[in-house]
Amino acid sequence: MQQNRKALLVGGPGTFDGEVVELTDGVDVKVRIPHASGHEHFTRSEESRLVDGEHLPVFTWSYRTKIAE
């Protein structure tokens, strides 16, 4: 059974900075989010932040990749 949990995205395109996303089990180090014609990549930091009464792990923006055509 997969358990969902939340994380906070920091940095990257303005649309993602400060966004809370749902994570599934097994996602502990990196997150890849489809965006426009590519993917935004976020890496887990050692930081956590309090958001709406929950301590959430922080994933910071690392880089962007484009989808091959």
Automatic annotation (TrEMBL):
InterPro entries: DUF5988. It holds the Pfam family DUF5988. This is DUF5988 family protein. It comes from Saccharothrix lopnurensis.
